[in-house]
Amino acid sequence: MAILDLVNAGEQPPASKRPAAGDEEDGSREYYCRRGVRHLSDTGITRLPGNYVLPASDRAADEYSPSLIKLPVVDLALLRRGPEQRAAVLRTLDAACREYGFFQVVNHGVDRADVAAMLDVARRFFALPQREREAYMSPDVRAPVRYGTSFNQVNDAVLCWRDFLKLACNLPLVDCVDSWPSSPPDLRAVASGYAAASQRVFMEVMEAALEALGVAGGEVMGDLRKGTQMMTVNCYPECPQPELTLGMPPHSDYGFLTLVLQDDVAGLQVMHDGDWLTVDPLPGSFVVNVGDHLEILSNGRYRSVLHRVRVNSKRLRVSVASFHSVAADRVVSPAPELIDDEHPRRYMDTDLATFLAYLTSAAGNHKSFLQSRRLY
Ligand SMILES: O=C(O)CCC(=O)C(=O)O
């Protein structure tokens, strides 16, 4: 038994909820990967199984009494209201991307009812019987639909307290939607409407970010218009010992920007000046963060920042993260406008296909992929 398994070893689902004889071995890592944490939480366990217990050095240090930060707010309505207001918003956006790598977007034009419907259908999907959810499980990181658990369950040394549904949203969207879950019956309509809205907001914010960086956006925006979008619907159920584990480990995101829709339960934490700060969920807003591809394109001016998710014992949390980038084989490089004697090129070229290949052999947490692309 591994050392980690000795901590809290022995906590298993009550007999009534255990798999029938001949099913996976009860309490094995494989069992937990197959069943996920929603199922485990529903069994009413009171102690965390050893597979989820992080070494003390990787746990969140403090008691869970998060001090909430308000991220810089980017108001998209002001972006459209004449050159002066646009310039002021661009300054806010630029400062947020350099200092935090994170900001919140308001007045984004996505209907509140559509946002609420997305969170609602997400909750209903994770409340479906386990067998229905399991049908979408796949170990293939390139699958157009993938239900699973943990962060990168094949390579995670310790499992994370998260279940997810990943939906590829590449264009034309109709080609992807048919492979998405058919239950709940409104999932395809609600999630495809939300995905299209999220792509619109992404394009508007990305155009502003390129303008703020002083980069000619034509080619990049053209590539993004034909690019990739992956939507991850996250479920972090109530956890019996949240201080021993995490919903997601510290990681950065691969793409240009990620748009995160969170419900009203706090959990997302951002690394800033060496401290973990909890993002205050601002109702109706999207949290937006810079991904590795934008850090590379900006030659390091914008920061793809580590973030992680804490869980709690009282309320299930749902979030929807939408990752946007160029097509998988399209090369991402530092913009020539941002390279000079004072700012030599800091990153090698990369592409999404290389990142996906990397994920099959590494956990992909921390900023390990981005570090592998750094020249100095
Ligand atoms: O659940 C969240 O708030 C953040 C999710 C996230 O970081 C991710 O999906 O990469």
Number of strands: 13
CATH superfamily: B-lactam Antibiotic, Isopenicillin N Synthase, Chain
Structural class computed from helices and strand pairing: alpha+beta
| Rg (CA only) | 21 Å
CATH class: Mainly Beta
What ligand species are in this complex?
A: 2-oxoglutaric acid
How many domain units?
1
GO molecular function: dioxygenase activity; metal ion binding
Domain Fe2OG dioxygenase: 226-326
Protein name: Fe2OG dioxygenase domain-containing protein
Cofactor: L-ascorbate
In short:
The chain has 376 residues and is α+β, with helices and mostly antiparallel strands.
What does this structure look like?
There is one protein chain. The protein is of the alpha+beta class and 376 residues long. It has one domain (68-372): Jelly Rolls, CATH 2.60.120.330. The protein has helices at residues 3-6, 29-42, 76-79, 83-99, 112-126, 130-134, 173-177, 187-213, 218-225, 292-297, 352-359, 368-373, and strands at 68-69, 73-75, 102-106, 145-149, 163-168, 228-236, 248-251, 257-262, 268-272, 275-279, 286-290, 307-309, 317-325. The strands form 2 sheets. The chain has an 8-stranded mixed β-sheet with strand order 2-3-11-8-13-6-5-4. The chain has a 5-stranded mixed β-sheet with strand order 1-10-9-12-7, with no helix packed on it. The chain is globular, with a radius of gyration of 21 Å. Residues 232, 234, 248, 253, 260, 262, 268, 307, 309, 319, 321 line the site of 2-oxoglutaric acid.
Question: Could you give the topology of this structure?
Answer:
Blueprint: H1 3-6, H2 29-42, E1 68-69, E2 73-75, H3 76-79, H4 83-99, E3 102-106, H5 112-126, H6 130-134, E4 145-149, E5 163-168, H7 173-177, H8 187-213, H9 218-225, E6 228-236, E7 248-251, E8 257-262, E9 268-272, E10 275-279, E11 286-290, H10 292-297, E12 307-309, E13 317-325, H11 352-359, H12 368-373
Parallel strand pairs: 1-10, 2-3
Antiparallel strand pairs: 3-11, 4-5, 5-6, 6-13, 7-12, 8-11, 8-13, 9-10, 9-12
Bound molecules: 2-oxoglutaric acid (AKG).
The site of 2-oxoglutaric acid (AKG) has 11 residues, from strand 6, strand 8, strand 12 and strand 13.
Region (Disordered): 7-28
Main location: cytoplasm
Function: Involved in the regulation of shoot development and salicylic acid (SA) homeostasis.
